């Protein structure tokens, strides 16, 4: 309760700062480009000052992940390719390999593989191969497969896909120009045979992206056709249509599929009243291909109640207010970021019911999500940095009588410590999640857990990594057969050759 009271007080204090109306100075300078508009007061900007972008903590908890700040720069060190491999205590094996300029016939070859056997009678195998031809070619191809067998629950799931890519740089027509053309043609095979459903189907795959421009406007468009379900997203930007700077970079558009048509608006607005303060407001609509390949990989132990649909997000609003203090508050905190995120997603895959109280049923529903929080840091302690984030999440399924979205904690407290000792980079996370509901709207145990990760550069182009996640084992898998989320020990290696 004390934590909740402190959280509410902090939110109120920072909300008053957000509501305060800024006073415009006479020497206002307007800068920006087609993707962002910034207002900057010249008299408050110090020479050579740079604004520090906040590095908010990950919301996928608990998951330490690999440390990135000490990794080799691929652009500088790559000669032939990159190989990464890892294995963990949950019987999962990962392999990623990329080869560059391997010959006159290929420009890039990428391969990644995932193999899991959480129990002796369950196996999951997933692999992808991507081949890209030189720039003077117009065709590239990719072959990808997803394969899963679960003997325990009589689940059998297979997915195969073959895609061909066509690329053209520009196609002029009178006063119009059609550029950045990318077209994908393919065929997929999906087989599901379990206690819920049995189906086998072939489906065409088509995706086209391009940009139509002339002297007055530009239209980014994406046309999708997967699993017999068409989808379209168009983003329209008219040049010099508005006299106000904040509207001058506003894009209007629409997204649609066989389910619905939705209007969209996209913008990115940044207001900088001082060199150490920034207010940024943006909305980025998205249309996600939620095809069977992705669902089979993410929900391979689940059962589907309908065919995949496109995830449509016309509302994807982000508001962030950042303050950097010249003198750390109380000698410790030197950065505060207040954030608020809102999104409206249509036809998102959610487990809301279960079959025989064992296997979650995946349906496609509409979800309205809001997150409000505070991120503060860093504390400098002998080269170590600490960042603290407090967040509250309000997510509801709008087409199911506004019930709470499953597996979304109402309150989150994330503490992160990072540091470096010689060639070793390390990171530790303390995670707290409270008030969580499962897919049957039943409360599950709160999460209070600790995770560690470390990375060591054994050579200029080789690093080894290790992590110990969920040391207190408070976040376990809920259903028999799901990949374990309890204590996990993982080792990996990354080599550039």
Query: How many structural domains can be distinguished in the coordinates?
Result: 1
Q: Structural class from helices and strands?
A: mainly beta
CATH topology: Maltoporin, Chain A
Corresponding CATH superfamily = TonB-dependent receptor, beta-barrel domain
Helix fraction bin = under 10%
The main pleated sheet reads as: 22 strands, antiparallel, barrel
Beginning-to-end CA distance, first to last residue: 54 Å
Given the structure, what is the number of helices? 4
Q: What percent strand?
A: over 45%
Instruction: Give the low-confidence spans.
Output: 12-77
What does this structure look like?
This protein has 497 residues and is mainly beta. The protein has one domain (2-496): Maltoporin, Chain A (Beta Barrel), CATH 2.40.170.20. It has four helices and 29 strands. It has helices spanning 2-19, 74-77, 245-248, 292-298, and strands at residues 28-32, 37-41, 81-88, 92-100, 108-116, 122-132, 139-150, 155-173, 176-193, 198-213, 217-226, 229-238, 251-257, 261-274, 277-283, 286-288, 303-304, 311-329, 333-355, 359-377, 385-397, 403-404, 411-421, 424-434, 436-437, 443-444, 447-459, 462-469, 488-496. The chain has a 22-stranded antiparallel beta barrel. Strand 13 and strand 14 (261-274) form a beta hairpin. The longest helix has 18 residues, at 2-19. 22% of the residues are buried. Mean pLDDT is 73; it is low at 12-77.
Highlighted features:
497 residues; mainly beta; Maltoporin, Chain A; 22-stranded antiparallel β-barrel; 4 helices; globular
């Amino acid at each position: 309760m004390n934590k909740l009271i402190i959280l509410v007080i902090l939110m109120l204090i920072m909300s008053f700062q957000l509501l305060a109306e800024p006073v415009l100075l006479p020497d206002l300078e307007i800068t920006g480009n087609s993707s962002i508009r910034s207002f900057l007061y010249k008299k408050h900007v110090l020479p050579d000052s740079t604004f520090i972008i906040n590095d908010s903590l990950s919301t996928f908890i608990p998951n330490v992940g690999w440390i990135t700040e000490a990794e080799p720069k691929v652009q500088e060190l790559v000669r032939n390719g990159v190989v990464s491999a890892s294995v963990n205590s949950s019987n999962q094996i990962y392999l990623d390999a990329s080869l560059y300029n391997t010959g006159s016939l290929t420009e890039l070859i990428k391969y990644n593989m995932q193999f899991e056997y959480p129990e002796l009678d369950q196996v999951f195998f997933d692999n992808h191969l991507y081949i890209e031809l030189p720039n003077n070619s117009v065709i590239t191809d990719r072959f990808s497969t997803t394969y899963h067998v679960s003997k325990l629950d009589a689940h059998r799931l297979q997915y195969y896909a073959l895609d061909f890519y066509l690329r053209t740089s520009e196609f002029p027509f009178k006063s119009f120009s059609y550029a950045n053309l990318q077209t994908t043609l393919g065929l997929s095979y999906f087989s599901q045979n379990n206690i819920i459903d049995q189906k086998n189907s072939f489906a065409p795959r088509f995706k086209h992206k391009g940009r139509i421009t002339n002297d007055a406007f530009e239209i980014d468009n994406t046309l999708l056709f997967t699993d017999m379900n068409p989808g379209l997203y168009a983003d329209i930007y008219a040049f010099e249509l508005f006299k106000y700077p904040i509207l001058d970079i506003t894009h209007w558009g629409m997204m649609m599929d066989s389910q619905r048509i939705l209007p969209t608006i996209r913008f990115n607005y940044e207001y900088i009243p001082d060199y150490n303060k920034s207010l940024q407001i943006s909305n980025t609509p998205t249309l996600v291909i939620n095809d069977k390949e992705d669902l089979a990989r993410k929900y391979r132990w689940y059962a589907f109640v309908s065919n995949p649909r496109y995830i449509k997000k016309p509302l994807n609003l982000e508001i962030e207010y950042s303050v950097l203090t010249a003198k750390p508050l109380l000698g410790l905190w030197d950065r505060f970021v207040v954030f608020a995120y809102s999104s409206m997603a249509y036809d998102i895959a959610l487990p809301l019911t279960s079959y025989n109280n064992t296997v979650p049923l995946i349906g496609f529903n509409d979800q309205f999500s809001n997150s409000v929080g505070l991120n503060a840091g860093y504390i400098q302690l002998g080269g170590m940095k600490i960042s603290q984030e407090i967040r509250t999440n309000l997510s509801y399924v709008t087409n199911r009588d506004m019930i709470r979205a499953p597996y979304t904690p109402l309150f989150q407290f994330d503490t992160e410590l990072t540091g470096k000792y010689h060639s070793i980079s390390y990171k530790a996370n303390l995670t707290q999640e409270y008030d969580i509901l499962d897919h049957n709207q039943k409360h599950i145990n709160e999460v209070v857990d600790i995770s560690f990760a470390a990375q060591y550069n054994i050579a200029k182009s080789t690093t080894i990594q290790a992590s110990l996640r969920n040391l207190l084992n408070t976040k376990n898998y809920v259903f028999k057969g799901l990949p374990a989320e309890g204590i996990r020990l993982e080792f990996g290696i990354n080599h550039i050759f």
